[in-house]
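Whiteboard transcription, Tuesday session. T.W. wrote the structure tokens on the left side:
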């Protein structure tokens, strides 16, 4: 259960107009809202598309929408209509940040592009989440998470060794783009303290997808060798992989020689830490196939959960492989306040950013209906 707000958020007094839909932009807006910004989400007359992305549904609205639109007031406008554009302009007169993910050229067609808005509101930070940016060979094209995973090389290194390329099982590109958008907004607000002027911030899915390629890009830059799929195993270090036990598999994340020596001691494998094939990180990586056989021969006689608990206590990074349900109910998840419960039965993921004096607060549950233009939260209004 989330704690009641104890102080204004770090972004108290910052006013955000969020015109975005789907994932990257709304995720950015939720991050800003969790940390105290007053976020007004403007949806089109039919609502954000993700309201229909279910099941499951509550009050006719999909869980997908509920996961991205906390701490926002909501109203609906048809920006193709002159009168509603005037309403938006009135809202922007009082705003610090605009977040949007319209296709390049759409806002410009309506006289709401960055140049026009900057001339009218010089302190406004205008953040656009786009697929590929506005120019270049792919400029202006729409972008989608799975397509960017395919195009940015992510799918090529995800999947079992020898198997087909595989999409990462969550919208990792959309989410990191939302994070980059929030980071860009904060950088622009910080710079505004010096210059007194806003600026255009762009977070493109394509750029964000490429930015996730570590260490595969670094490996390719240095070696020129095409990265390949390695399943659960890390391409550079070993044992950094799922390993079978007598019960459930555990994930070993051994990153240095000291950890490997402790692992060998606890598995009662004398001499392994000094074996030339395994004594160094580079040797273990080269001889990973033989090492995995040796480890599983020993660990296949042991209980996975007990072994994981024992190894972690001894200083060997490892973990049981948990389901989503088990992860969300884990005692440490509760301790870290990573599950938020609010009125009307809302549950969601908490903020991973912990600030000592101005922690994240959870003030508005996602709104099932449109045009709920709630009053500002005075505790976070900064006035």
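and on the right, the sequence the group agreed on:
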């Amino acid at each position: 259960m989330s704690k009641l707000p104890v102080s204004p958020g770090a972004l108290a007094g910052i006013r955000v107009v969020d015109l975005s839909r789907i994932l990257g932009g709304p995720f950015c807006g939720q991050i800003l809202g969790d940390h105290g910004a007053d976020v007004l989400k403007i949806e089109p007359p039919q609502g954000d598309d993700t309201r229909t992305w279910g099941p499951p549904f509550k009050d006719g609205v999909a869980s997908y929408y509920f996961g991205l639109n906390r701490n926002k007031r909501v109203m609906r406008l048809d920006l193709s209509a002159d009168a509603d554009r005037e309403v938006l302009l009135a809202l922007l007169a009082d705003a610090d940040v605009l977040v949007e993910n319209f296709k390049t050229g759409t806002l410009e067609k309506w006289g709401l592009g960055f140049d026009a808005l900057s001339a009218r509101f010089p302190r406004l930070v205008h953040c656009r989440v786009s697929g590929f940016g506005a120019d270049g060979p792919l400029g202006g094209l729409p972008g989608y998470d799975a397509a960017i995973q395919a195009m940015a090389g992510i799918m090529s290194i995800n999947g079992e060794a020898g198997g087909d390329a595989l999409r990462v099982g969550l919208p990792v590109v959309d989410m990191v783009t939302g994070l980059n958008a929030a980071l860009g907004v904060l950088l622009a607000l910080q710079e505004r303290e010096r210059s007194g002027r806003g600026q255009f911030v762009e977070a493109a899915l394509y750029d964000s997808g490429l930015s996730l390629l570590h260490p595969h890009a670094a490996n390719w830059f240095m070696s020129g060798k095409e990265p390949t799929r390695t399943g659960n195993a890390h391409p550079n270090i070993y044992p950094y992989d799922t390993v079978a036990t007598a019960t459930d598999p555990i994930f070993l994340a051994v990153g240095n020689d000291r950890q490997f020596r402790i692992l060998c001691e606890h598995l009662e494998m004398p001499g392994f830490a000094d074996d030339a094939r395994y004594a160094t990180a580079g040797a273990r990586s080269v001889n990973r196939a033989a090492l995995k056989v040796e480890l599983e021969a020993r660990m296949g006689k042991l209980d996975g959960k007990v072994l994981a608990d024992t190894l972690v206590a001894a200083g060997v990074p490892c973990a049981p492989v948990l389901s989503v349900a088990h992860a969300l109910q884990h005692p440490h998840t509760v301790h870290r306040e990573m599950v938020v419960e609010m009125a009307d039965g809302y549950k969601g993921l908490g903020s991973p950013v912990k600030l000592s004096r101005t922690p994240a607060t959870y003030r508005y549950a996602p709104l099932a209906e449109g045009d709920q233009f709630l009053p500002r939260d005075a505790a976070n209004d900064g006035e």
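Someone added at the bottom: The chain has two domains: 15-212+352-380, 250-320.
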